[in-house]
DNA sequence: CACGCTGGACGTATTACCTCA
DNA sequence: ATTGAGGTAATACGTCCAGCG
């Protein structure tokens, strides 16, 4: 995902309590470790500051729609009591599978124990990718089937999925980081511009005699926010509004809003 | 040949669940 | 019925390092 893709998305900046909003596949699973902090949206119901994209497709590989397919444990959870037994049975199969697999062995032909690097074929990689798109985690049956299909050991399939998850997450983190950096730059620029505007307005106010100041009715209003005079927000003598969320209650007649504030 | 990158493999920590005393 | 210990399995994470360009 490049930043070109982000151009069509709106930015969400929120501060407050977030209700648990775990994706379905996480709800159906047994609760595991706390989710990664970079997960969007934040899963914990604590006060949080979020900055994210409004599009749901932002993290396709991280939050695949697993609600339509069995998650690694949801398929087993309905068996509750026999869960471990079933998994152990499958693990037994795995051992047999590993013994039977002739493609890779822990030892080389010459008997040395050096770590031999497996190179997956294009077909194997493609099938694994395809499978990962469907579900980023595998239940034992799926792992078994995939391993059989690929002529690999289940352990290799498992490792591949582990690495794939980790590296997908890493990549996404880098993208998020880059995106947040850009947001930060933009907001810094905006802040600088507004500070400058404020200074100029103050200077203008001091320079003008009181009677020459424009009556409120002639002031230009920001067309997009239209907050002047609206609502219950009151403006004190300094132009500062009272109330927790009011802003931009002072008209901005400078520069005629050639560059309306992003806050509007 | 050296170097950096990619990705397969592994070790460890954590968590959940089960069995059993 | 409850509880705590021990065992097992799955996953995340960090790291190593072979192989490749």
Automatic annotation (TrEMBL):
Residues 177-207 form a coiled coil. Residues 18-118 are annotated as: Disordered. One of its GO terms (cellular component) is nucleus. GO terms for molecular function: DNA-binding transcription factor activity, RNA polymerase II-specific; sequence-specific DNA binding. InterPro entries: HD, HD-ZIP_Homeobox_LZ_Class_II, Homeobox_CS, Homeodomain-like_sf, Leu_zip_homeo. It is found in: Nucleus. It holds the Pfam family Homeodomain. Residues 113-172 bind DNA. Keywords: Coiled coil, DNA-binding, Homeobox, Nucleus, Transcription, Transcription regulation. Residues 111-171 form the Homeobox domain. Residues 47-81 have a biased composition (Polar residues). Belongs to the HD-ZIP homeobox family. Class II subfamily. This is Homeobox-leucine zipper protein HAT22-like. It comes from Cucumis melo (Muskmelon). The lineage of its organism: Eukaryota, Viridiplantae, Streptophyta, Embryophyta, Tracheophyta.
